[in-house]
Amino acid sequence: MTVASAPAVVPPRVRPPTPVSMAAALNRALADSLAADERVVVFGEDVGTLGGVFRVTDGLAARFGEDRVFDTPLAESAIVGSAIGMAMNGLVPVVEMQFDAFAYPAFEQITSHLAKIHNRTRGKVVLPVVIRIPFGGGIGGVEHHSDSSEAYYTHTPGLRVVAPGTPADAYRLLRQAIECPDPVIFLEPKRRYWSKETAVLTPDGPPIDRAVVRRPGTDVTLIAYGGMVATALEAAEAAVEEDWDVEVIDLRSLSPFDDVTLTESVRRTGRAVIVHEAPGFAGYGAEVAARLTEQCFHYLQAPILRVTGLDIPYPPPHLERFHLPNTDRILDAIARLQWEEDDA
């Protein structure tokens, strides 16, 4: 009796990793979310026909129709107010603020309503709203086009605040944000929109509220997020010439804060530097420094330092290189940590 052999199992074809920009990764995340859930709608100023100022929504209106991807009037408060109403009625709105400082007219809607309705209704009403905000400098933009406004949102209970630092994370975090039942402020570092990396775009990976170690090290923990992640990695590579082994942590989630990953690193290295583009006074880095000091005080070999933007309104384009943190300023901070130890 002849037994028929089992048919050969052909493994699924895996698309090899290809270089992809952060803007393209965000576009793919929006398209995949629109395709996966008919409740998702995308809207904002010029996001439909034009595809957005940075072309992040390019082609989505043609593919999914004007009922699901559409333009709005130039009225940020109305955009967010409409999103709140839509979410209360079962939709999943993803809205875009054209630039960081353009979101300020919607601030009352965000802080007084979007962040509070879930608590106000004792959990009966959920608001799965994602507000995409291009933030930060590095593109030669004028004021109102280069703000780093993360501290306003992280100070507001009821909001999740995330900031991707790589194209792969931009895709992953946006997919996770759209699926999250909580309102999410999604900060997109516009200086990284056109930077590319070889990556497989998948929603699988670290949860939305976890930091990740981008580069392991033993001498100092360098903490960054958004557009400063690449700068921190560049500084860590340059530090090798000084025989400093720098660990780089990408926060990803600004609120809630991943205490576990950060404290494990700082307790091991004994030193920490926090980098962000926003002004230093009462900036987000001050909260990070306070939390790490409270939890790691007996492990620290030097004070926690911050490398930030200057405490001034955003400067004209030809001066922003003096305002923004760079590799030299980060290395100077690390050198100060070494000096503090030697002096002690």
The whole-angstrom Rg is 22 Å
Number of helices: 12
Low-confidence stretches: none
Which geometry do the CA atoms define?
globular
User: Into which percent range does the helicity of residues fall?
Assistant: 25-40%
CATH structural class of the largest domain: Alpha Beta
What's the CATH superfamily of the largest domain, by name?
Thiamin diphosphate (ThDP)-binding fold, Pyr/PP domains
**Proportion of β residues?**
15-25%
- Strands across the major sheet, in which order? 3-2-4-5-7-6-12
Q: How many structural domains in the coordinates?
A: 2
- Average the pLDDT over all residues and give the rounded result: 93
Describe what you observe in this structure.
By secondary structure, the chain is of the alpha/beta class. The chain folds into 2 domains: 18-199, 3-Layer(aba) Sandwich (Rossmann fold); 212-343, Rossmann fold, CATH 3.40.50. It has 12 helices and 14 strands. The chain has helices at residues 22-36, 60-64, 76-88, 107-114, 117-120, 150-154, 167-179, 228-239, 259-269, 284-296, 320-323, 327-343, and strands at 18-21, 40-44, 69-71, 92-96, 130-135, 160-162, 184-189, 196-199, 212-215, 220-224, 246-250, 253-255, 272-279, 305-309. The strands form 3 sheets. The chain has a 7-stranded mixed sheet with strand order 3-2-4-5-7-6-12, sandwiched between helices. The chain has a 5-stranded mixed sheet with strand order 9-11-10-13-14, with helices on both faces. Helix 8 (228-239) links the parallel strand 10 and strand 11. Helix 3 runs parallel beside helix 4 (107-114). The longest helix is centred in the C-terminal third of the chain and has 17 residues, at 327-343. It is globular and about 60 Å long. The model has no long low-confidence stretch (mean pLDDT 93).
